[in-house]
Amino acid sequence: PDGSRVIFPTGNTPLKMYQVLRNRDDGHGCFQVYQLDEYVGSTEYRDYLKRELPSRYSLHCIDGKATDLEEECARHDRACQQVDLCILGIGKNGHIGFNEPPSNEASPTRVVQLDPSTVEANQTPHTHAITLGIRTILTSKKIVVMAHRNKHAVLQEVYAGRTPAACLAHHPHVELVVESPP
Ligand code: GLP
User: Fold this and answer.
1) Is the CB of 97 inside a 6 Å radius of any atom of ligand 1?
2) Prediction pTM value
């Protein structure tokens, strides 16, 4: 409904969802969108969300260029408590947001060093990022994880209870949407 608070991810997986939201041109549905993660020193993910989201949505950004990154994490973390819906993608190593292994349920919103495999998968020059912590993600009223078909291998790890994404199994309202193999 109008005014719902949602956490939205970046990446290739949700691009079709954003297209559907833009094309839903009935003027209804105006969400408060909270950014999931951002590279330190960058506005890349904020720019992505600004580009992909209908312009009538309010966007609550992470300032990856803040001088006091710890304070920026604390500020954004306070804003992101108990949202109505959190939509997530999943990294090839099972990360959610940038909660790299071995993040767990207690991981706070913080600056993280990216796993070398993530730097390679994302083809990015950045080595550090701010991510909402799994602890805050788990306060969401509902969580939906979207997995493209190229994530089938890591999903086996998730089902086995390994990787950070497996922490979501403890949430009472979590849904996994997986694209079927070709
Ligand atoms: C990045 C983001 C994640 C995202 C992941 C998967 O690492 N930090 O939030 O879920 O990429 O991206 P893709 O959907 O392009 O596979």
Assistant:
1) yes
2) 0.95
